[in-house]
Amino acid sequence: GQAAGQSRGLAEQAQKADREARQAEQAAGRMVAQARDRLAESERRLLAQQGDLAAVARQLDQVAADAAAAAGTLAESEAAIADLPDGESLRTALAESRVLASDKRAGLTEQRGARERLRQEMQSRTARMSAIDRETAMWQARAGGTTARLAELHQRREATAAELDSLAHRPGEIAVERDRLGDEIAVAERQRAATSDDLAVATTRQADAAKQLKAAESDLTGVRETRVRAEAEVTAAQTQVEGVAERIAERLECPPDRAAQIAGLAPGDDPPSRDHAEAGLQRLFRERESLGTVNLRAEAEAEELDQRIAALMGEREDLIGAINRLRHGIASLNREARDRLLASFEVVDRHFQELFVRLFGGGKASLRLTEAEDPLAAGLEIFASPPGKRLQHLSLLSGGEQALTAIALLFAVFMTNPAPICVLDEVDAPLDDANVDRFCTLLEELAGRGDTRFLVITHHRMTMARVDRLFGVTMPERGVSRLVSVDLQQAEVLRDVG
């Protein structure tokens, strides 16, 4: 089962790595496409700016040509003025020439200003072209890094595929091992079910036997009382018969069977008169009343009671035998439970000692069964000795030490008999940062085995930073709660790709 769990964990890790590689490859492809688009856009902008710079250069050349022409015209005008004779016409022409020269100078000044503005704009665009060149080089470098990252992801993908190929035969082996373990588990479950059924039947029979025994004891008590009453009645009747016989013997001085002879009645004689018979009957009534009530079926009832008592005694023997067999079965179950308890206790104690040393960074601890010779009725005491302290009872430790010791015991039990899900509610609250780090490391190791999924309820930042997925409850508006989840592993993958 552990090998199957490890193989499933390796397969899940390989699949996860393959998914991460594909996601990273897709993200890198998207980033390369974006980089190529931005590079093309930068190249288009660079070509447009180069065209603008060429136009500005042509304008500067035209301004320079116009300035040179204006300077030639001014020189020719001044030469012509120098060759002209004196006179009013010359002064007029000179004034016109000066006005024209002033206009030309103003135009030349404007052209020089425009040339200066064009020169400044050319410098600004040259600086912008340099920035574009640097940005282009940066994007080309990032594209190269992305290419290297893609190559690395391809290598990781090939390694993952090779590892998946090497693990391809493992599912068959795991299936065979799982079938074998499933058969063993089924056999053990059938044995456990049979034992449980036998125990339930024995328990039911014990309860029924107890009820029957109680009813038999009650019936036996009633029978005994009835027998005692019957014996008392028989004794009373015998006493009364004896009394009548004594009275007959006393009065008639003969046995009762000779009373008719004493009365003078022969077998063939006529009965006495009615009055005499009435007197005799009344006398007999008085004698019968003096004898009291006689139970003529006392002996038959006594025999019936004896037979019933014998049957109840046989049932009692059967019940005693069933109780002995049930007690023997219970003793066998207790013996097996005691052996299993001691074996499990030794395993849990060993794991507890190892985990205590790991969580505390030293020291020692142990578990002990106390207060009873029978392990099934014994209590459990925890003795711990953190580093630098003497061995003492758990109740004498501090709150954080008690919490860390309890965590070690809990994980020791889970290592002995793992459960599918474990919920830990604020177990790291009394721990400091160093102990929380040890607790998280141990929790990651236990979760990595794949036997148990841990759900940790915590407010500690270090614990929340070490888990695979976070779930939180927020209240975006009053009276409305919303569940928020974050996959930290996926966030790390996105961070590495970015």
Care to describe what's here?
α6 (about 300-360) crosses α7 (about 400-415) and α6 packs across α8. This protein is rod-shaped. Helices cover about 75% and strands about 10% of the residues. A hairpin with a 2-residue loop joins β6 and β7. It has helices at about 1-85, 90-165, 170-250, 260-265, 275-290, 300-360, 400-415, 435-450, 460-465, 490-495; strands spanning about 365-370, 380-385, 390-395, 420-425, 455, 470-475, 480-485. The chain has about 500 residues and is mostly helical. About 5% of the residues are buried. The chain contains ten helices and seven strands. The two termini are about 40 Å apart.
Average per-residue pLDDT, rounded, comes to 76
Number of helices: 10
The coarse silhouette is rod-shaped
* Classification by helices and strands: mainly alpha
Number of β-strand runs:
7
> What are the secondary-structure elements, in order, as H or E?
HHHHHHEEEHEHEHEEH
The percent range for helix content is over 70%
Provide the low-confidence segments as ranges: none
Strand order across the largest sheet: 1-2-3
Tell me the distance between the termini: 40 Å
β-sheet strand percentage: 5-15%
Q: Main sheet?
A: 3 strands, antiparallel
What key attributes describe this structure?
single chain; 498 residues; mainly alpha; three-stranded antiparallel β-sheet; 10 helices; 7 strands; 76% helix; 9% strand; rod-shaped
